[in-house]
Automatic annotation (TrEMBL):
Belongs to the peptidase A1 family. The keyword Metal-binding does not apply. It comes from Durio zibethinus. GO terms for cellular component: extracellular region. This is Basic 7S globulin-like.
Length: 436
């Protein structure tokens, strides 16, 4: 609560003075919360005039931010984007121009440039007016949160309230973090001339927020001991998928999602059998490995899933672990009583995603591979990967649970992903950023 009043005070000051963008390098920070029912993540930013804290579904691969403009949208600074404007044409190749016969409102205007907001969890879409309005984000030196800075013309679109179905109860829209020039980090970087780089540290807890750091390549300090986790980053190139897979496809446009070149998956250091052609993105956009916040658990094409679970069971049996009744959607579970807990979670075989060479791998420890399920049926730890069927568009979709308490840096200036593996190994967590 004091968090809010503290910042409302700054916003009050901001509303009195217009603050020029400072010359020295700055970066921005926003808390990330995990919803305990949908297991999805949200980002809290400040929108409108006067500024309102606004909780948006965090979508790593989306192109445009959208907000429900029909429920309590009250702002003195919103503007529609005229169809004939250069901004409207720069927003994309497949836009529509709309007219409206209801009373004027954020979601209703004539000659208004429109976009197709999408819900990537339900894969539903709509057509809604594009808007600009004020956005503010607290600044950061990588260590703690400083005063906020205003971006007066943040570009996003409205959405009907129904597009929120399937997301966490609390959110009023979606924050796009994809490769598009109009994603949230892209607009922040373009407006303030800071590096086109952002870092995500998804919380493993539903009660303590993690953090997004926008416009900085580090340092990223966690805990009171100021542990700089950027020192642990290992890099792999970001791959471009030439064909997008949004509901409304923009003909000939590449995907705004983040793909990496996983070349093998090892269990306890031993490669599992995978048809390597499925790990390559083909000319139609099929295959390969992407990161996604639209799925709570990593989804694997069936033959990869079977190879992983077989190898995992085999390696676990060498640790005297015997599988017990499976709990859906998982198929490999162990009695919690048989599992030893280490500082990186349950002591189970490691799963490595190996990239461009054998020295570059993202190690997944028990805290990120296993899911605790306690209920009437017993108390078990299950291998937290799910079967994506025989012919999914993407062979490996790395989901939320596998990314938690790992810091991920999306550096579009260098076109690479930096990853730390579990920050629990460094004695910290993603919930240890020093929010005031
Ligand atoms: C989820 O969180 C809400 C609000 O913090 C709480 O009321 C609810 O009991 C929690 N639900 C579960 C299943 O933990
Ligand atoms: C919108 O905000 C203005 C000024 O803060 C206020 O006077 C007005 O009542 C608000 N309208 C609604 C519908 O909340
Ligand atoms: C759009 O134009 C039509 C025709 O001129 C008019 O009836 C309507 O009220 C206008 N809509 C808005 C939102 O101004
Ligand atoms: C909704 O968000 C508020 C803070 O904005 C939080 O206190 C509350 O616990 C959240 N409710 C749920 C169900 O997550
Ligand atoms: C990206 O957006 C900025 C404004 O945010 C604009 O100045 C620039 O021209 C855009 N670049 C491209 C390639 O569309
Ligand atoms: C625009 O998108 C629609 C729906 O996907 C598609 O039918 C149409 O061909 C696209 N138009 C252009 C010019 O890309
Ligand atoms: C992915 O890695 C493989 C094996 O090193 C390599 O042959 C391939 O060219 C890489 N793909 C891309 C898109 O970099
Ligand atoms: C590997 O997969 C490709 C298509 O994904 C298929 O054409 C090929 O036959 C497969 N190879 C083997 C050995 O299963
Ligand atoms: C099963 O595990 C044993 C012991 O770690 C290992 O020697 C063997 O190669 C594994 N077999 C398979 C199919 O993974
Ligand atoms: C597994 O169990 C056998 C027999 O009880 C024992 O000899 C062996 O040391 C155990 N191995 C591990 C890794 O605990």
């Amino acid at each position: 609560m004091c968090f809010h009043s503290f910042f409302l005070f700054f916003f009050f000051l901001l509303s009195l003075f217009s603050i020029p963008s400072p010359a020295r390098a700055i970066s921005f920070v926003a808390p990330i919360d995990k919803d305990n029912s949908t297991l999805l993540y949200s980002l809290t930013i400040y929108l409108k005039t006067p500024l309102q804290p606004t909780r948006l579904h965090l979508d790593l691969g989306a192109s445009f931010t959208w907000v429900d403009c029909d429920t309590d949208y009250n702002s003195s600074t919103y503007q529609h984007i005229p169809c004939a404007s250069p901004l409207c044409s720069s927003l994309g190749h497949n836009l529509s121009c709309s007219n409206c016969f209801k009373p004027p409102s954020p979601s209703c205007a004539n000659d208004s440039c429109s976009l197709f907001p999408e819900n990537s969890v339900t894969r539903k879409t709509a057509i809604s007016t594009a808007l600009t309005d004020s956005l503010a984000l607290p600044t950061s030196d990588g260590s703690t949160q400083g005063p906020p800075i205003l971006l007066p013309t943040y570009i996003f679109s409205c959405s009907p309230p129904s597009l929120l179905e399937g997301l966490a109860n609390n959110v009023t829209g979606l924050a796009a973090l994809g490769r598009s020039n109009y994603s949230l980090p892209a607009q922040v970087s373009n407006s303030f001339s800071v590096s086109r780089s952002f870092a995500l540290c998804l919380p493993g807890s539903t009660s303590d927020p993690g953090v997004a750091l926008i416009g900085s390549v580090g340092p990223y300090y966690f805990s009171s001991q100021k542990i700089d986790v950027s020192k642990s980053l290992v890099y792999t190139p970001l791959i471009l998928n030439p064909v997008g897979s949004t509901v409304i496809t923009y003909a000939g446009e590449p995907s705004d999602e983040y793909y990496i070149n996983v070349t093998s998956i090892n269990v306890n250091g031993k490669p599992i059998q995978i048809n390597s052609s499925s790990l390559t993105v083909d000319e139609n956009g099929f295959g390969g490995t992407k990161l996604s916040t639209a799925t709570p658990y990593t989804v694997l094409e069936t033959s990869i899933y079977n190879a992983l679970t077989d190898a995992f069971e085999n390696e676990s049996s060498a640790l005297n672990l015997t599988v017990t009744n499976a709990v859906k959607p998982f198929s490999v579970c162990y009695s919690a009583a048989d599992i030893i807990i280490t500082r990186v979670g349950p002591g189970v075989p490691t799963v490595d995603m190996v990239m461009q060479n054998d020295d570059v791998f993202w190690r997944v420890f028990g805290s990120n591979s296993m899911v605790r399920i306690a209920g009437e049926g017993g108390d078990v730890w299950c291998l937290g990967f799910v079967d994506g069927g025989v012919n999914p568009r993407t062979a490996v979709v790395i989901g939320g649970h596998q990314m938690e308490d790992n810091l991920l840096q999306f550096d579009l200036d260098s076109n690479r992903l930096g990853f730390t593996s579990s920050v629990l190994l460094k004695g910290t967590t993603c919930s240890n950023f020093n929010f005031p």
